[in-house]
Amino acid sequence: MATITKKELVNRIADKTGQTKVATKDVVQMFLDEIVRELGQGNRLEFREFGVFEIKRRARRKAQNPRTGQRVEVPARHVVKFKTGRSMKAAVEAVAAADAARAPTSNGAPPSAGAPAAS
Predict the structure, then answer these.
(1) For the packed helices 6-17 and 21-40, what is the interaxial angle rounded to 10 degrees?
(2) Comparing C-alpha atoms, which of 56, 43, 53, 55 is closest to residue 85?
(3) Which of 4.10.520.10, 3.30.870.10, 3.30.43.10, 1.10.3300.10 is the CATH number of 6-102?
(4) Above 90 in pLDDT, residue 71?
(5) pTM
(6) Using one digit for the tens of pLDDT, what is the confidence trace for 92-107?
């Protein structure tokens, strides 16, 4: 799997829309800035089929320093949560299914090797 940057997305969108890369970059950046601004105000953003961004409060908890083993108190804080929408969930599940189909079994054979034929 590859890492796609904002620059790559801007290039793709500019090519598809016929807009200049500069204009497309400005629109994409404005969109991202608005998401950050709305979340910063505590608002929930819902994009149908894509997903929902919202702020959730994480409770105070105890953790352990892995180096020293000492117990430490982690204060409560707010975090951004993202819940996938139907379209994104389906796309991710398709990738997972394709990966599972390509993964070798524990004996090193492809998943279908040695499996009985379906009747």
Answers:
(1) 120
(2) 53
(3) 4.10.520.10
(4) yes
(5) 0.71
(6) 999 989 888 887 766 6
